[in-house]
Design goal:
The chain is α+β, with helices and mostly antiparallel strands. The chain has one domain: Dynein light chain 2a, cytoplasmic (Beta-Lactamase, 2-Layer Sandwich). A hairpin with a 4-residue loop joins β1 and β2. The chain starts with a helix and ends with a helix.
Length: about 120
């Protein structure tokens, strides 16, 4: 099992990682951040709204189950939002340099970090 700091350090080991945070989406507050490239505190608050909007939409549509992850692709970056399966109310947010990362490997690593995360 890994704590927040250990999980953040693991996220930064992913090829192309620029920054990451672990967020409480009930409040929008970041529990920990690492790296740079974007304002991670602002990203935590903004992506909280993304997660809540998707959950509300799924509920309105009658879609059962949870969100595996949300991928946002930009010109030069990939943003992965991974609601935690083991820590209800939390999500992992990872910013990757698009040219230096492998999306499939990054998604698998984020999943394994979430599996080990203990808050």
């Amino acid at each position: 099992m890994a704590n927040i700091d250990g999980s953040l350090n693991g996220l930064m080991e992913i090829d192309g990682a620029m920054g990451a945070c672990i967020v409480d989406y009930t409040t929008g507050m970041s529990l920990g951040t690492i790296g740079s490239g974007v304002d991670l505190e602002l990203a935590a608050a903004g992506n909280t709204e993304v997660v809540k909007a998707k959950m509300d939409t799924m509920k309105s549509l009658g879609i059962e189950g949870g969100i595996e992850d949300i991928l946002i692709t930009l010109d030069t970056q990939l943003h992965i939002i991974k609601p935690s399966l083991n820590n209800t109310g939390l999500f992992i947010y990872l910013v990757l340099d698009k040219g230096k990362s492998n999306l499939a490997l990054a998604r698998r690593k984020v999943q394994s970090i979430d599996d080990a995360l203990e808050v």
